[in-house]
Amino acid sequence: MPNQPFFTRDGARLVPNTPARGPWTAGSLHGRVIIGLLGAEIERLHGDPAYMPARLTVDMYKAPDMSPLEIVTRVLRDGHRIKVIDAELISNGQSAGRASCQFLRRTANPPGRVWTTPDWDVPRPGDIPDPGPIPGTMHGLWTLRPVEGQIGVYGQRRTWMKEVRELVGGEALTPFGRVAVGCDYASPLANAGDDGLGYINSDVTLYLHRTPATEWVGFESIHHAATDGVAIGGCYLYDEQGRIGSATVCALAQTKPPQPRR
């Protein structure tokens, strides 16, 4: 089904649809939809326009299958300036992932200038021709507009990404939900080598000082390091107005190659 949502809501349960299937293990969910769902449910149940979802950390310690699942949330702190929400993904009665989200109250920036690295200077996605299907990128889960580099080629990578389907059917993606479901792409972009992707990430931490103002989110690989099969990697994140934050992952060497999507 074209642009079928990743999940369908059925009361308290979320039922995975075919596009939610991941590449590593047959019949299991993609990490990006686990991250996106945990973040989106935290925002849906506990979000407040006066607060910025500044940090989302997701641990993925068990590959859930395509069975219906539930997200259980818990308020750890509901303060005037800081809110902290935990969430747990329950699949087949077992915990398969967890998230912690920190909301910070919006206010005015203090005076003075603070040094930072310059924003990237790249063409906007509307100025980049559609490249069509890109090998190694699971075409159909998103729309990509590569700027520099590609999976399987040594070097820095920069690309624009746009989601092409709803996370949950009938529920429009919010700006935070959009970047939450997309941020898992930091792992292949930062950790793939010239022989393809040999690492599977077990977590992601998303930092945002603002949510994306447009449908396009930009990814710029900025670091990778690995020893004894344990890797860390990260990307800066952008929208068409400038940098919005970063995504960092840790990952394990994975000798079994991703399975092609059909």
Could you list the spans in which at least 5 consecutive residues all have pLDDT below 50? Answer: none
Quick check: average pLDDT?
93
Helix/strand class = mainly beta
Determine Rg (CA atoms, Å). Answer: 18 Å
- Could you tell me the number of beta strands? 13
- Specify the biggest β-sheet: 11 strands, antiparallel
Number of helices: 3
Task: Give helix % range.
Answer: 10-25%
Structure description:
By secondary structure, this protein is mainly beta. 11% of the residues lie in helices and 40% in strands. It is built from 3 helices and 13 strands, in the order ββαββββββααβββββ. The protein has helices at 31-46, 175-182, 186-191, and strands spanning 7-10, 13-16, 51-60, 69-78, 82-91, 94-105, 142-148, 158-163, 199-201, 203-208, 216-227, 230-239, 242-253. Strands 3, 4, 5, 6, 7, 8, 9, 10, 11, 12 and 13 form an 11-stranded antiparallel sheet that branches. Strands 1-2 form a two-stranded antiparallel sheet. The chain starts with 6 loop residues before the first strand and ends in a 9-residue tail after the last strand. 37% of the residues are buried. The model has no long low-confidence stretch (mean pLDDT 93).
